[in-house]
Design goal:
Helix content: 25-40%
Largest sheet: 8 strands, parallel
Strand content: 15-25%
Number of helices: 8
Number of strands: 8
Structural class: alpha/beta
């Protein structure tokens, strides 16, 4: 990832990239298991400095790619248990993992490990879908139930959860009632059309404060014109510039980890979706605690 060195573990690392290549939690188009491979491949065009943000992350923190976690592609419950155990090792020394999915199921076991270390966490969740279903086709663990499980297991703080970019058809008109009752802040894509997200991100920072925070970015939050390679595309989505506003607006939060999920390369032969995902992951790296900032011609206000 990003032409970084490969490490066997997180000893001495402040942050790491780690792949989670699964898609057997998917309800629509599979293919996200190939996301880590494609995102890594496309990431070689991303350079080491972020002149717009004024960040040179590799001069501030120690980062490496630790490869993929071992996954069970036949038993999703066993797979999640295995992911949780491996993430307990990854984060035990305070390393901040930037995870490359994989379908959205991966957020559930990762949050289990995070909550075990940090307690319930805040979350910035960028997605077309709320993923708070109670079941999907009779199954409890799926890519559409991850955050229902997270609430039920006290992994996240509901009043410090922001879901940004929601849209698309749903099964019933009360589909969002449960999470609203829990205190989620739900921001629908239609309310963000033609707008800057800078004011929203100030609210996010004010509400979350210093609480340990997890960033969860589903690539389908972006409009399919920008990111067609995903399992559940929905029209009317966020622009890539709004994605940058969200991530850069997370600067100053106590970010303990993040994931990029649902990149499905078979549905985008151009590689554009994976390139976009790689750049967003680089942007997340640039807002991690410990990254130093510098003034550049691009950061000066005109």
């Amino acid at each position: 990832m990003l032409r970084l060195p490969i490490a066997r573990n997180t000893d001495g690392l402040d942050a790491c990239f780690v792949g989670v290549p699964i898609d057997h939690g998917t309800s629509n188009r599979s293919g996200a298991r190939f996301g880590p491979r494609q995102i890594r491949s496309e990431s070689v065009i991303v350079r080491k400095c972020n002149i717009q943000a004024g960040a040179d992350p590799f001069s501030s923190i120690q980062v490496a790619d630790i490869g993929d976690v071992r996954v069970n592609l036949y038993n999703l419950k066993k797979c999640c248990d295995d992911i949780k155990k491996q993430y307990e090792e990854i984060i035990k020394n305070g390393c901040r993992p930037l995870s490359i999915g994989g379908d959205h199921t991966i957020s559930y076991p990762i949050l289990q490990a995070m909550a075990e270390k940090y307690g319930p966490v805040a979350m910035v969740h960028v997605d077309a879908h709320s993923d708070c279903n109670s079941f999907a086709n009779g199954e409890k663990i799926t890519h559409g139930t991850a955050f229902r499980l997270a609430i039920e297991e006290n992994l996240i703080i509901p009043t410090k959860v922001f879901q940004i970019g929601l849209r698309g058809s749903v099964g019933s008109l009360d589909s969002f009632d449960w999470q609203l009752d829990k205190g989620f802040r739900m921001i629908h894509a239609k309310d963000l059309w033609y707008k800057s997200l800078t004011p929203l991100m100030k609210e996010v920072r004010d509400v979350i404060g210093e609480t340990p925070t997890y960033i969860c970015f589903d690539i389908d939050a972006l409009d399919p014109s920008a990111a067609p390679g995903t399992g559940f595309p929905e029209i009317g989505g966020l622009t890539t510039s709004q994605a940058l506003e969200i991530i850069r607006g997370c600067r100053g939060l106590n970010i303990i980890g993040a994931d990029m999920v649902e990149v499905a390369p078979p549905y985008d032969t151009t590689g554009t979706t994976a390139i976009t995902a790689a750049n967003i992951l680089f942007e997340i790296l640039c807002v991690l605690p410990g990254v130093k900032y510098h003034e550049t011609p691009a950061t000066k206000k005109t």
